[in-house]
Write a structure and sequence with these properties.
Elements (H helix, E strand, L loop, with lengths): L6 E11 L2 H6 L3 H12 L2 H12 L4 H13 L2 E5 L2 E7 L6 H24 L4 E13 L2 E3 L1 H12 L4 E4 L1 H11 L3 H10 L3 E2 L8 E2 L3
């Protein structure tokens, strides 16, 4: 059987914990170790499990969500940084595009909320494009773009890059389902940044 290629095209997200250095500087190593082992490392899978549980009474949705989590959604954690990736073809039929956006935005929103409730406020950004991830090595413009934008944010939250925002808005014109979820997951907002502010869309 041919192995899946580590080179993909799709949605990527980079997130880091606000105040992580402060946590390390002001706590004993055993506290930090417990924080990492008991909260940070299990968080992506716990979020996935809760998402599946939410749709357990809706067979057609839970089947797609379960398959997307099992086969496509991946995460890597490096210190206080979380890298999410979700292979996703933006040229697919509108219905599949809609499902892909809804799934990823839903997961990211729940992930941010779960981390915040656990005392780990995250800031991050998401983008679309070609990327390469194999074990602990990764490369690709969407990863770099997401990282650069996330480092500028002065809030706990997530923003779309300008590239992804334009693509998302273009799909909105052709897919009614996306229009229904925009008010739930995406909000045009002037986000406080460490450089000149731009009109970007946080989740």
């Amino acid at each position: 059987m041919e192995k899946a290629s580590p080179q993909k095209e799709g949605l990527v997200g980079i997130f880091d914990i606000l105040g992580y250095q402060y946590i390390i500087d002001n706590n004993q190593i055993n506290y930090v170790a417990d924080l990492i082992s008991n909260i940070l490392l299990p968080l992506p899978q716990e979020t996935a499990d809760k998402l599946i549980q939410t749709y357990k009474t809706t067979p057609n949705i839970v089947d797609y969500v379960s398959s997307a989590i099992k086969d496509d959604l991946k995460w890597r954690i490096f210190s206080d940084t979380i890298l999410l990736s979700f292979p996703f073809d933006a040229k697919k039929p509108p219905l599949l595009i809609s499902k892909g956006y809804i799934f990823f935005l839903n997961y990211v929103s729940r992930f941010l909320r779960s981390a915040f409730d656990a005392g780990l406020p995250l800031r991050g950004a998401i983008d679309y494009g070609e990327f390469y991830i194999k074990e602990n090595c990764f490369a690709g413009k969407p990863i770099i773009n997401s990282y650069r934008l996330s480092q500028e944010l002065q809030i706990s939250g997530c923003a779309m890059t300008e590239c992804l925002e334009k693509q998302f808005n273009a799909h909105l014109e052709n897919e009614e389902a996306l229009k229904k979820i925009r008010s739930v997951f995406v909000l045009p907002y002037l986000v406080p940044r460490s450089v000149e502010d731009h009109d970007i869309s946080p989740l």
